[in-house]
Amino acid sequence: MNFNRWKFPILCAAVLAVMAALYLANAIVRHDYYDEGVYLRDAELVAAGLQPYRDFVLLHPPVGVKLWAVLLRLGAAAETVKKINLLFSGALVVLVMTLVRRLGGPLWSSAFSGILLAANVHFWLFSRFIHLELLLSFFLLCSATLFLLGKGKVSAVGAGVFAALAIGTKFTAIFLIVPLAALLIVRRGDRRRLYLAAGAGLVVLLVVLSDLRFPEVRRLLIDSQFSRPSGLPGSRIGLLYGIFLQDPLFWLVAAAAPLILLAARGQDQDLRRPAAVIIGAGILATVLSAVVPRNFHDYYIFFTLPFLAAGIGLCAASFPAARRVTLAVSAMALIWIGLWRFVLPDDWSDPPVISALRAGTGTVFVENPMLARLAGREPCPGYYFSDPYSLGLLGVSSERLWEDLGRCDEVLLDRKSVASEVVVVPYEIRSRLRQEGELIYRDDRYRLYRLK
């Protein structure tokens, strides 16, 4: 057997095998993340018929939560929803490889793009969790695939539908949709853009804007863009503006990826080389953000990763030595996804805090309702992100909060939330709990109090 001929396919097969093993591990082992409880709680409220969905205040339109609400109404458990997320992440890898291959990239560049995405630490982190980034990425890539590979009106309408679903999942989708839409507007002779706009408009009217008929949603949406209720330094920056300021160079680089995909469609070929230069120059600047997470919460970049992987794969196909470089990078990717500590399961057993919660009885206040759910405990009502008390939006006093907490049997505090902008329980309440509550469990992160 000629090993030189088969070494790249063998390497690709090895990478896919490691990916499959890690997918199975992530599917079997439970991983918990703070925001999961927030999203599931919102989905439960919507599934129970409580309207409107008010989480526009945190930059989260209703599509993702309403989709999860449908699954919950059909009887799906939280763990089932988490496993469905794994299917979305696998579909993203397949879509990226298909897109690159169908746009004219050779088989090796298609495999390279898939490996580049699958080896990304952020991709693995958020394939574990119930989070909006996976849905956002899936809808965006479906839109790009239909528009770039399709030729008729139906595919254009479908692309518009998925683009609107992406915006209806999270507003940050505009950072990729706007530059691509602007390019389509200035181009001539492509009438499919009208059908794309029609499909997008239909979804926006039926899904996204449906909740804006409620005055309180409109008020919260407007307020959130100009004032953060946390009161922390920098809280007066609007959310969309603040997200762009977080890493403007990355957004410029990410916006070039759709241009490469459009250029590879057979038109505007002169765009491919400049876009390749832009991405190449930006790789060094963005590698820390895109590969090594400097902060676990830097998940805003997640939805750009499939486009970057596809764009880089197509660019690599344009250079003579790309196959050798791809082979080396793929080998490093194989080692990376096999050894990176975040990829492997954190704990094959229940965390101690879950055992402590299971040992108690009655209702428990938790800042993350996921913990109560996993422990089989009934969480106290209210004080979640979509509820009116959350984040002090209605100015609930500490005395009122303390009075309501007194109706709970136990209170679990998360020290991690104190270090973030989202503090559900004010500091004065935490201090009062230490004085008047009985501490029954503590670790490096959690404190569990029984109210006397």
Automatic annotation (TrEMBL):
GO terms for biological process: lipopolysaccharide biosynthetic process. It is found in: Cell membrane. GO terms for molecular function: pentosyltransferase activity. It is a multi-pass membrane protein. Keywords: Cell membrane, Glycosyltransferase, Membrane, Transferase, Transmembrane, Transmembrane helix. Its main location: membrane. The chain crosses the membrane at residues 51-72, 84-101, 107-125, 132-149, 161-186, 193-210, 239-263, 275-293, 299-319, 326-344. GO terms for cellular component: plasma membrane. InterPro entries: LipidA_mod_glycosyltrf_83. This is Uncharacterized protein. It comes from Candidatus Uhrbacteria bacterium RIFCSPHIGHO2_12_FULL_57_11.
